[in-house]
Structure formats: structure tokens, C-alpha cells
Amino acid sequence: MSNTSAPRRRFLKKAATGAGAAGVLAAPMIASAQTTSLRFQSTWPSKDIFHEYALDFAKKVNDMAGGRLKIDVLPAGAVVPAFQLLEAVNKGTLDGGHGVLVYHYGKNTALSLWGSGPSFGMDANMLLAWHNYGGGKDLLAEIYKSINMDVVSFVYGPMPTQPLGWFKKPIARVEDLKGVKFRTVGIAVDVFTAMGAAVNPLPGGEIVPALDRGLIDGAEFNNASSDRVLGFPDVVKNCMLQSFHQSSEQFEILFNGPKYNGLPAELKAIIDYAVQAASADMSWKAIHRNSQDYIELKKAGVKFYKTPDAILRAQLAAYDKVVSTKAGENPLFKKVLDSQRAFAQRAGQWQNDYSVDMKMAYNHYFGAKAPAKKG
């Protein structure tokens, strides 16, 4: 081999390297991952704090997904009526939605056990504990499968105890409910019916107009913030606080099954953690906003009354009869009820034994005999 071979080989190697580099530079840039857009609808009017909670969840997902996933949330009625959300998500008319399980009561009565009733003494956060760690999540999936709903459900957002309701006259006795045309939903329909009321399960946006026109005499919705913005104080001035009809309810975030299952694992993880973050954020925001709006309702002339214990005990008695009947009619209803009872007996004893009465501390600082503020 001649002495010119080595320089020639170095020249060819250098040329090949240069050509490779030029090829890299000439190649088009690889496009970034495309955005998956999901169209959601809530079951709430756009002005309601509940719709705000739906937007809060979507923002958390959108922010964490970094452009790969975008959830757009429409208010109730934008695509389908509030009570048709489940069917729309199942069919793919909507990619997902935000609502409450009790709105699907007509599909399977067991769905209302996620918060409609006293839940064996569990508050909303304890019921979420049962759902996530006590078997509720699997039972919910079983119920949806039994009614042929291909959806993925996330239960989140523990709600504060809901009032008995708004009435044209204060409710002082159980007998005062007899013949009252009343709005509620879920198992509460059966409970209030058993207590003598004539119940009409209207969607949230239709309640105040019905009260204003005299189509109903009383109604419950949920909380001080929602009740205020929906216009309850404009048509009724009496609100009965404390009730067992929906003392431990939560929200539900629904996804169309095929749409959700087609997402990459990392986007599913973002949704899961966004649900958890939104659950905590919702509970904090509720305390902040509900307490402010409670004050504003009082300023607007609303009179608040504590629901008498006799009515609360009558609710428990009516509830027991209603669920006993439904458990006999629906095996899944009984399955959920038994699961909740077992969890509540264990977790409730722990909570009641360990938890101090915070009302004692509140009265110490803010009651009639509270020590004078110094400074």
C-alpha cells in the first residue's frame, strides 16, 4: 500500500463526518407532541362556585400537562341538560364532565349512596376515605359496568354539610314538612317523601325560578356560596341549617372510557394527581368562600335556624326504612351499604374517640363569655 493511502483515508473519513453533520442539519425538526383536547361539561351554571371547582380541576391538569393535554369545561346545558351528563360522556358526545353521583340516581339507586344520606355517621372526607381505601372505587366501577356505562370516574371534593333547605316558613316540627312542595335529589327524594313532602327533583339552575313562581314551597341545593349566587335570598328568606339528607357528598369527574384509556400513562398520572390536588383545594376554598357568603346572606336579611333535633332523628328513621327497601330490591345497593357500614364502624369509632370537640375551643374564644381581646 502506498504512503498516500493514510492521508486519503483521513480525508474520506472527514468528508463522511461532514456529510453526516450536514444531513442532521438539513433534516426537518421533529415536531413536538400534539395536544390532546378534551371537551367537558359541568352540571352547574357558569356563575356557580361548583362550575368554578370544575375549572380549577381543568386548570391543574392543563398546567401540569405542559401543552400535551387540554381540558375545556363548558357550563350546564351547553351540550346536554345537567341530568344527561352520564349518557353523553358514555356515548362520547362529551369527553368528560363534572357533577355528582346522585344525579345518576335513575340509572342505579346505589349511585346515590356516595353522599346522599347520613353515611353511617361518616362526614364527606371519611366517605372519600372509604371510596379510595375501603372498596368504594371498585364498587363504583362495578355499578357502571352493570348499567353499560363505559366511563372512568374520579370521586373527589368533600362538601360541607348541606342545609335542610330554604322555606317560605321556618320548619319547626316534622309535621311542618307534610304537603310542602320541595326540591331535592337522590335518596333524599324518598326520605323527604316518607316525611310527608311532595318532592320534585329539579336541576340546580331551575330551583330559584320554580320557587319564585310558586311551583315549589321549599328547596335545598348545597351551600352558602351556591345558594347566594343562584338567587335563593331573592325569593325566600328562611334557611334551615343542618341535615342528614346530604351530609357527606362529594363531586365526580367523569371521562369517556375509550378516550381516557387511550391516553399515555404519564397523562393518566397527571389526571390522578390533579384530582387529589383539586380535592384538597376545593375543601379549602369552600371553607373560605362559604363562610364569607354566609355573612353576606345574613346581611341580605336571611334568617337562619338550626334544624330541630326531632326532625334530624326523623330523617334517620326515614332513611333507614328507605335503604332497607332499596337494599332488598337491588343487590348492588346492599353491597355498597354493607361496605360503608363496615368501614364507618371502624373509622367512625377512631374519629369520634380521637377528635376533640372544636366547638368548645370556638366558644372559648368567640362565645358570650370569651376572654377580652388584648392589645
What percent strand? 5-15%
Termini separation: 101 Å
Shape field? globular
CATH 2nd-level architecture of the domain at 36-159 and 248-290: 3-Layer(aba) Sandwich
CATH T-level fold name of the domain at 36-159 and 248-290? D-Maltodextrin-Binding Protein, domain 2
CATH superfamily of the domain at 36-159 and 248-290: Bacterial extracellular solute-binding protein, family 7
Number of helices: 14
How many beta-strand runs?
A: 11
Q: Any idea of the CATH class of the domain at 36-159 and 248-290?
A: Alpha Beta
Strand order of the largest sheet: 7-6-8-5-9-11
Largest sheet: 6 strands, mixed
Order of helices and strands: HEHEHEHHEEEHEHEHHEEHHEHHH
The SS-based structural class is alpha/beta
Low-confidence stretches: 1-9, 11-31
How helix-rich are the residues, as a percent range?
A: 40-55%
- Average per-residue pLDDT, rounded, comes to 91
> Whole-number radius of gyration?
27 Å
